[in-house]
Design a protein that fits this description.
The structure is a single chain. This protein has 242 residues and is mainly α. The protein has a single domain, classed as Up-down Bundle (Growth Hormone, Chain: A), CATH 1.20.1250. 81% of the residues lie in helices and 0% in strands. It is built from ten helices and no strands. Helix 2 crosses helix 8. It is globular.
């Protein structure tokens, strides 16, 4: 009887060893570590998404109020030309620029670069006087890229059967961020109009700066922290076991 029990235990241990080797030597600790890393990536991406989306979606409304006031006093026709130029440059760069950048950069680097350029466009617009403001549509052509790239990064972290839930959650976040952006931007613009009429854009730049900090943290986690699901890591463990 004792011999049969010992034989069963030995068989169970051999089976466990075989399963570990087949799964790249992955242990319960490895799975837990991978879960923590993936959770951290999600949190950093969501925080970055929030801080970039809040100023982005209400920027157009603030620009209309800004251009109607001093020192611009633009007519509706001039405001329309500015908006058309901005949409055109963003659309062209959104297609051609993204395609070219993805040939030589990863999505997280593109998001970081686009956010930094977007911060510059907010700062320039806040301090712009007369003709300088026409540079804003060109500089801000990459402003929408970070949000798209973050969505792509979150999608790559999510299993195929959870993609619908992910995009539903992103849609809910979009709505919340838009509401927060509308309320906060209008209040900030009204409160700072006598101090500096473009101050609201500097606040938007500050929000984007916080967003890029979270993006850099995501890059750090992705590059330097061990992800036990990575193919290279699994290959190395299988080789070591052999």
């Amino acid at each position: 009887m004792a011999v049969e029990i010992n034989g069963d235990l030995l068989s169970s241990e051999n089976e466990t060893t075989r399963l570990l080797v087949e799964n790249g030597g992955e242990t319960l600790t490895d799975v837990q570590n991978d879960t923590k890393v993936k959770r951290m990536k999600y949190i950093l991406l969501v925080l970055s998404f929030l801080f970039l989306t809040i100023p982005y979606f209400n920027r157009g409304g603030m620009e209309i109020l800004y251009q109607m006031g001093q020192p611009f006093c633009w007519s509706s026709k001039k405001i329309g030309w500015f908006a058309a130029l901005k949409i055109s440059t963003a659309s062209v760069f959104g297609v051609a620029g993204t395609y070219l950048l993805q040939k030589c950069m990863t999505d997280d680097i593109i998001a970081t670069l686009g956010t930094i350029i977007g911060i510059a466009s907010y700062v320039v617009e806040g301090f712009a006087k007369q003709s300088i403001i026409w540079l804003v549509p060109v500089i801000s052509a990459t402003s929408g890229l970070p949000i798209l790239m973050i969505r792509s990064l979150m999608s790559s972290l999510t299993p195929a059967d959870k993609q619908g839930a992910l995009f539903a959650s992103i849609g809910a976040l979009d709505t919340v961020c838009t509401l927060i952006g509308i309320v906060s931007s209008n209040d900030i613009y009204s409160a700072t109009l006598t101090i500096m009429n473009g101050f609201v854009f500097e606040i938007m730049a500050a929000f984007s700066l916080i967003g890029v900090i979270f993006l850099v943290a995501y890059i750090f986690v992705s590059r330097l922290m061990v992800d036990t699901d990575s193919e290279d890591d699994i290959t190395n463990r299988v080789t070591a076991d052999e």
